[in-house]
Amino acid sequence: MGDNQTALSYYQKALEIQELSLPSNHPDIATAYNNLGTIYSAMGNKQKALSSYEKSLEIERTSLPSNHPTFVTTYNNIGLVHQSMDDYSTALSFYQKAYEVCEKNPQLSQSDEAASTFNKIGSAHHSMKEYSIALSFLEKAVEIQ
């Protein structure tokens, strides 16, 4: 509904409750940080978004196997923040990590997550004026879709 301030308030309350009731490395707490990152990103607060996504990633690394599909979302979200700050090489490194998770999971290799990741890689290359590389990744995204 576009009321990011209210959403932020509820996500913060949810995180507080989860931190009181769950172990500190519980995947639901990582999801709560990811949700906060999304709201901060929508509000234009890139540093808080990045910090929230990084906290989510830190928890995921201690609580989930390295090929868990959740990593695709988190890596892509971190990449998006870096791309929005014109840090394309860092964005690409996180998009590559997301793609590697997709590659390790047969059910993800031809999924919406893989297509979205290819789209993000293509977008970053486009922003870098590497048009032929961008086109190849965007074509892969379309092929999967």
From TrEMBL:
Q: Does this entry carry the keyword Repeat?
A: yes
Segments spanning the bilayer are none
The record's annotation in PROSITE patterns points to: TPR, TPR_REGION
- UniProt keywords, alphabetically: Repeat, TPR repeat
Which InterPro entries does its entry note? TPR-like_helical_dom_sf (IPR011990), TPR_rpt (IPR019734)
State the Gene3D superfamilies in the record: Tetratricopeptide repeat domain
Quote the SUPFAM superfamilies the UniProt record gives: TPR-like
One Pfam family this chain carries? TPR_12
Keyword Lyase listed: no
Q: Which protein is depicted?
A: Kinesin light chain
Species in which this protein is naturally found: Rotaria sordida
